[in-house]
Amino acid sequence: MSAPEQTPGADYSPALEAPRSPYRRNRSTRTNWELYGWLFMRMSGLALIVLVFGHLFVNLMTGEGIHQVDWGFVAGKWASPFWQTWDLLMLWLAMLHGANGVRTVINDYAERDATRFWLKMALYLATVVVIVVGTLVIFTFDPCSSPAHQFSFCAPVDDVPTVTSPGS
Amino acid sequence: MATSLTPPPQGAKTRIKPPGTLYRGREGMWSWVMHRISGVLIFFFLFVHVLDTATVRISPEVYDGVIAQYKNPVMGLGESGLVGAVVFHALNGVRIILVDFWGKGTRHQRAMFWTVVGLWVAIMVPFLVRHLTIVFTH
Question: Is B122 part of any domain?
C-alpha cells in the first residue's frame, strides 16, 4: 500500500555505482506514490464535502434531527440503493482520506523507525478492519429482517408466490 | 529547540518580542494546526461511528440502545464540537486546494483564512440553533 519507506533492520546504504555510470534521476525505487496521495487528499476531500454535509443535513437537520435516528430510520435509508451507494462511497473515501492524514501525522512526529513502522501497521490494520466491517454491513443489511419494523416494500410472507401449485 | 533564523535583536530594550516570520504564529500556521487537530479528531470519531452503525446488523434493540447514547445533552454538545471540526476541516480544505491550484492562492491565503472563519460562523450559528434546540427541547 505504501511507498518504499524505512523499515527497521533494512539496509539503506546506497549501492556503489560503477565508475562513470550515468546519473539516473528517476531510480526504479522511486515512484509517484506520494504525488497520487497528495492528489487523492484533494479529490476525495471535495467529494467528502458533498457526501458528509449531505449526511449531516439529512440525519441531523431534517425531521426530528438526532432523535429520528433509530434502526427503522437506517433501514429506511438502506432500503434504497441511493443511500447505500452514498454511505459506501463516504465510508471508503473518509477512511482512506483519514488514514492517509494520520499516516502523515505519524510520519511527522514518530521519530524512531520502529515506532513509526508499528504505529502505521496498527493504523493500516484498523483501517482495513473498519472498511471491511462497514462494507459488509452495508451489503448484508436486510431492512425487512425485523418483525417489529415492517415497511411497505417488505412483502408479507403469505404473499410470496409459490411454484409448487401452478394450477391454483 | 529549533534555532531561529531571525537575527538577534539589536538592542535588548528596544525590541522585546522577536519579529516572527511570515508563517510562524500567524494565520498560515494556526490554520495548519487546526486542520491537523480537527482531522485527527474526525478520524477517531469515524472509527467509533462505523462500529456503532455496524450494530444495525445485530438487532434493532442493540442498535437503538447504542444510538440512544448520542441523544443525551452531553453527547449533543459533543456532536456540536464534531460538526464544528468537520465544517472547519472542509472549509480550510478548500482553502488548501485553492492555495495549491489557484495561481493567486498563496497571495490571498490570509484573506481566505478569515473567509473560512467567517463562513464557519455563518454555517455553525444556524446549525447550533437547530441542533441544540432538538437536543435540549425533545
Answer: yes
**pLDDT surpassing 90 at residue A94:** yes
Q: Which residue type, as a one-letter code, is found at position A150?
A: Q
Cβ-based contacts under 8 A for chains A and B: 98
Residue B114 lies in a domain: yes
Yes or no: say if B64 and A71 are a contact pair by the CB < 8 Å rule: yes
φ, ψ for residue B102, nearest 5 deg: -90, 130
Q: Please report whether residue B74 resides in a domain.
A: yes
Q: Which residues of A touch B57 (CB under 8 A)?
A: 136-137, 140-141
CATH of the domain spanning A33-146: 1.20.1300.10
Euclidean distance between the first and final Cα of chain B, in Å?
Answer: 52
What stretches of B39-117 adopt beta strand conformation (E)?
none
The parent domain of residue B73 ranges over 27-137
What pLDDT, on the 0 to 100 scale, is given for residue B67? 92
pTM given for the model: 0.79
Q: What is the pLDDT of residues B108-127, one digit of tens each?
A: 999 999 999 999 999 999 99
CA distance A34 to chain B (A): 15
Considering its fold, how many domains does chain B have in total? 1
For residue B100, list chain A residues with Cβ-Cβ distance below 8 A: 42
Ranges of each domain in chain A: 33-146
Does residue B89 fall inside a structural domain?
Answer: yes
User: What ipTM does this complex have?
Assistant: 0.82
- Check if the beta carbon of residue A4 is closer than 8 Å to that of residue A29: yes
How many Å lie between the alpha carbon of A84 and the closest alpha carbon of chain B? 13
B56 touches chain A (CB under 8 A): yes
Nearest CA in chain B to A146: B60
Kindly report the CATH number assigned to the domain that includes residue B50.
1.20.1300.10
Given its phi and psi angles, is residue A63 left (phi above 0), alpha (psi -120 to 50 degrees) or beta? left
* pLDDT tops 80 at residue A95: yes
